[in-house]
Design goal:
Elements lengths: L3 E6 L12 E6 L8 E11 L2 H7 L18 E8 L9 E4 L6 E5 L4 E2 L15 H14 L6 E5 L4 H12 L3 E6 L2 H11 L3 E4 L5 H8 L4 E6 L3 H10 E9 L20 H5 L3 E4 L9 H14 L6 E5 L4 H9 L6 E5 L3
Parallel strand pairs: 8-9, 8-11, 9-10, 11-12, 12-13, 14-15
Antiparallel strand pairs: 1-2, 3-4, 3-6, 3-15, 4-5, 5-7
Helix pairs in contact: 2-3, 2-8
Bound molecules: NADP nicotinamide-adenine-dinucleotide phosphate (NAP).
Length: about 325
């Protein structure tokens, strides 16, 4: 009989995450109860924020724990359904985790409309695309002609932030971790400038890339990049605090940068954190606008595909070291 292959959290990382913090297991395929569906995962996303969950710094994720399937958003096919509104054979986005089969409550899934590419629900039409959309437009509130800076700019959230800013006629400056990624942001995604945060001359390069200062900084990283951005922010600037990926892969996160609150006061900067879930009621409208941009070609979705469940732990370790370009997706259907 077919079984359910899973990747479990075997131990919690002290210091950097390693593949050995995970183990593979097989379990029986679960049975859906009343109001539930059985989903066969076709692909899932590996996202930086789940490292914060393992660290215990993401309060919404609860306390980190071992012996459970690694969490993650996936897409898959409905194999069996006890929900009238969801038919067998349809495709859904769901909190599948890193496993082949999962039972889901109807309220936990998003049915993917026919004709939509399910993989887009792990990227631009999924959690990360919505994060980029609401964080930039609602928190950052960019105006045409302003300069928008984004960190982890070649990552899943970041590459969408930069493109939305470009669509809104802003000057876009990306910060990322390699010269190749910088070149790609400018040649393929229309960024005006890109700066490598691993270069010794990063602060000077950022200054040169932002001659008119920065009006909106979309912060995916915290750390030194946030510290540098603070000095480039214009009076009345906005910082959308999205994530702190520079401080996730450690058990000794550094304190916040210098200049807070002094620079915030003197430059009247609005620094605001947000969670994408804050905008749940507006997801449908945002997806409509994002879909329109995808169809018109104004928004490109970069995915970085890996094949097979057993490759997921290594792919996560590599993502935290900057190995991904766009949304890292593990495919189970190839
Ligand atoms: N607020 C919310 O609701 C919400 C929702 C989803 C995601 N997020 C946040 O969004 C951020 C991006 O997530 P993602 O899934 O799109 O990941 P991602 O950007 O695709 O991947 C993580 C990237 O972080 C960069 N990075 C790693 N270590 C770094 C360091 N020490 N300094 C600077 N950059 C570093 C690497 O790129 P480089 O090569 O550029 O260094 C890496 O590719 C995360 O902070 C996540 O927590 C927030």
């Amino acid at each position: 009989m077919e079984e359910n292959q899973q990747v479990l959290i075997d131990s919690l990382p002290q210091g950097k995450l390693e593949e050995s913090h995970y183990r593979m297991e097989t379990a029986p395929i679960p049975e859906p109860g009343d109001g539930e569906i059985l989903v066969r995962t076709t692909a899932f996303a590996i996202t930086a924020g789940t490292r914060a969950g393992l660290q215990g710094s993401a309060s919404y994720a609860g306390a980190p724990t071992t012996g459970i399937v690694m969490n993650g958003t996936g897409v898959g096919e409905v194999i069996a359904s006890n929900v009238d509104a969801i038919s067998t054979g349809s495709h859904v986005m769901a909190p599948t985790g890193w496993q082949q089969y999962s039972v889901q409550e109807a309220k936990a899934v998003t049915v993917i409309p026919e004709g939509h590419n399910p993989i887009h629900y792990l990227g631009p039409l999924g959690v990360n695309g919505l994060t980029a959309y609401f964080g930039l437009l609602r928190v950052g509130q960019p105006k045409a002609g302003e300069t928008v800076m984004v960190s982890a700019a070649a990552g899943s959230v970041g590459h969408i932030v930069g493109q939305i800013a470009r669509i809104r006629d802003c000057r876009v400056v990306g910060v990322t971790g390699s010269d190749a990624k910088c070149a790609l942001l400018m040649s393929d995604l229309g960024f005006d400038a890109a700066v490598n945060h691993r270069d010794d001359g990063f602060r000077q390069s950022l200054k040169e890339a932002t001659p008119d200062g920065v009006d909106v900084y979309f912060d995916n990283t915290g750390g030194d990049i946030l510290g540098s951005a603070l000095f480039r922010l214009n009076v009345g600037g906005r910082i959308a605090c999205c994530g702190v990926v520079s401080q996730y892969d450690t058990d000794r996160p550094e304190p916040g940068p210098k200049g807070i609150p002094g620079l915030l006061i003197n430059k009247r900067i609005n620094m605001r954190g947000f969670l994408v879930f804050d905008y749940l009621e507006d997801y449908a409208a945002a997806r409509e606008e994002l879909s329109g941009w995808l169809e018109s070609g104004e928004l490109k979705s970069l995915t970085d595909e890996i094949s097979g469940l057993e490759a997921a732990p290594g792919a996560f370790v590599d993502l935290l070291a900057g190995g991904n370009v766009g949304t890292r997706v593990v495919r189970l259907d190839q």
